[in-house]
Amino acid sequence: MKDGLRQSMAWVHTWSGLLVCWLLLLVFMGGTAAYYKHEITFWMKPELHKAADAPSRVTPTESATLAVRELQQRAPKANAWFLDLPHERNPLIYASWTNPPKKGMTREERRAAFRTQNFTLDPMTGEHTAAPRDTRGGEFLYRLHFDLYYMSAIWGRWIVGIAAMAMLVAIISGVITHKRIFKDFFTFRPKKGQRSWLDAHNATAVLALPFHLMITYTGLVTLMFMYMPAPTKALYGTEQNAMFADVFPNAERVKPAKQSAPLADIAPMLLQAERAWGVAPTRIVVSNPNDANARVALHRPSGQQLSNIEPSMTFDGASGALLSETAPMSTTLDARAAIYGLHVAHFADTLLRALFFVCGLAGTAMVATGALLWGVKERQKYAKVLAKGGRVGFGVRLVDALNIGAIAGLPIAFAAYFWANRLLPVEMASRTNAEANVFFIAWGVAALLAQIRPTRAMWRFQLTAGAVLLAGIPVLNAFTTDSHLGVTLFGGPALRAVAGFDIVVLLLGLLLGWAAWWLGRKAKKQAAAKTPAQAAQTTPLEAA
Amino acid sequence: MTTLTWRYRGGVAARAVAAIAGGYVLTAIASALIAIALPLPRADAVTLATLLSFVVYTCVILWVFATSSALRAWIGVVGASSVLGALLWIAGRAS
Question: Of A220, A332, A366, B7, which has the highest C-beta tally within 10 A?
Answer without folding.
Answer: A366
